[in-house]
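User: I'm preparing a small set of examples for a lab meeting where we compare how different chains pack in three dimensions. I only have the primary sequence for this one, and I'd like the structure in token form so I can line it up with the others. Please keep the answer compact; I'll paste it straight into my notes.
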Amino acid sequence: MSSTRKKRKLKKAGKFLLLIILLILVGVGGYFCYINRNEWFTQPKKEEKKEKKKKEIVKTDKDFEAKMIMVGDALIHWGVYNDAKTPDGGYDFKPQIADFKQISSKYDIAYYNQETVLGGKELGVSSYPLFNSPYEVGDAFIDAGFNMVSLATNHTMDKGEQGVLNSVNYWKQHPEVAVSGQWSSEVERTESVKKIYEKNGITYAFISYTIWNNGLNTPWGKDYLSNEYTPEKAKADIESVRDKVDFVIVAMHWGTEYSFRVDYKQEEIANYLSSLGVDLIVGAHPHVIQTVGYINDGKTFVVYSLGNFISDQNDVDNFTGLAMEVTLKKHVDKEDNVTCSVVDPKAQLVYTTTRNIGYNTNFRIITYPKLTNDQLRNRDGYYEHYKAIVNERYPNLTWGLSGEA
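Assistant: Understood. Below is the structure token output for the 405-residue chain.
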């Protein structure tokens, strides 16, 4: 056999061997594909399902809310002191607000204005014109569920620096209560303004201002004792906390005493605070009720004056106060965008009832619907009169508190 023919046979044998090897490799590869088909094709689908489920959880909308009630001034006159005296020489104000406790204790946030400074008995209990109240006033309100207190009033400096320091030290013993308006140092003031409170997943800041101190100036360099309002101070305070919380709540001691009408200064300050991003403004000082409503296209809800909550001013206008309810609502959408609003305002009138035996005794706070004609003659007439004042700027206001049910 020639070498040429021999080479051709070897070449054909090689090709045939190569074909056999390729067929074997394809078979083996096909076999491995077959036995691993579930792992290769099913696993990506499992991962895809996990990722899809994860995305569905993130995209769920969430809602948070906290219900808040607000009442007016704790204006403690001699009659209120004398009625609260105990045989041992102390004071117990709890019975005076026990009926309203059934309402206020049901709310997440309960606010009132401590008109008279809590300087304690050691500084001498006193009434108008220079007030000083015992700590038991605060005890009664805390017992009734109140956990937000405005301390900046025109009577803050009635007992000088020591009166404020005593008040501050009292409230420090109750860290569960949000207080604002009086401090013992500038450092404390700064920390308080920036403090973030939380309820039901909602965060909020609380700041209290007064626009005067009855001419009783704070000691030089100690403006922190009484938080007097200026536009510049308010701007700095609110900007320091606005982006850190869901809601900014401001208490304002403002307005014209004994006037049912909102004055120009209240209007000016309310609009300015709203422009800074304040969500809720709560007013005090007139000692009578005033209207409520939204301003700045609904961005801010304003209660211009809650009137007195408890006092002995001995006039129906001053014995009548306003209890306001709002809901602080936060909505988080699927893209984590947050919308916060003050919604569902509700109102009720409260009245300080007394027994007159030549002087007033047996002080009790009762809502108007529960008053008898013996306690307030022409109750229904007064009710409609005061409701019209409150409704002036918000005629669709709901009357009746959730906590009354």
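A couple of notes for your slides: The chain has two domains: 3-51, 62-404. The two ends are 117 Å apart (CA to CA).

User: Perfect, thanks.
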